[in-house]
User: Fold this.
Amino acid sequence: MSTEPAAPPPSPSTTSSPSTPSTASATSPSRRTFIATSTAVGGVVVAGGVLAGAPAGGSGQAAAEARTSSRVSVTVNGRRHTVTVDNRTSLLDLLREHLGLTGSKKGCNAGACGACTVLVDGRRQNACLLLAVRLDGAEVTTVEGLADGERLHPLQQAFIDQDAFQCGYCTPGQIMSGVGCIQEGHTGSGDEIREWMSGNICRCGCYVKIVRAVEQTAGRK
Assistant:
């Protein structure tokens, strides 16, 4: 039987050290810290992007506006006008809103009533259906351009002589259409005049007198 003393139990200092978990917790962020840090960094990035993009956005908007407007030069009643308009602006709105020529009336704004009839390069046109930007260099005549000073155009005088209007709203378009009808030579008969002016509506029903006024101006009566 051995008389050697038993080996002492292991010292607490020699047992497995929990240093690894402690080191990990000290060097690795907790879930709460990670989320807070990510949120803060993300906010800085977004704010920086907005601030950095502000000038670019402003210049982009200016460029977009430049692309949606154009300069157009038209001769209206013998006077040259150069204006910058939205590309969607109709000739009717150019005349009324930009040039102050309100004789051409906005009736249906769809080309169905003829109240906005004008002459473009000598031909009858519904001003509400024409884009102003497509008329660069064109010559436009409105009802304001018919009279010679204080002297009325013969058809204007004929409308007075024949009492060819009531409310007068359609009258400018009727007169311009009548002038075009005469210039085109479509005044051989009352039926021909009615056919070639059928796009101009008179809600007061003055068609008989309108035809008489055109006939008077054309020399048929």
Q: What stands out?
A: The CA atoms of residues 3 and 9 lie 18 Å apart. Residues 12-26 have pLDDT under 50 and may be disordered. The helical segments are 19-27, 31-67, 91-98, 154-161, 171-184, 190-196, 207-218. The radius of gyration is 41 Å.
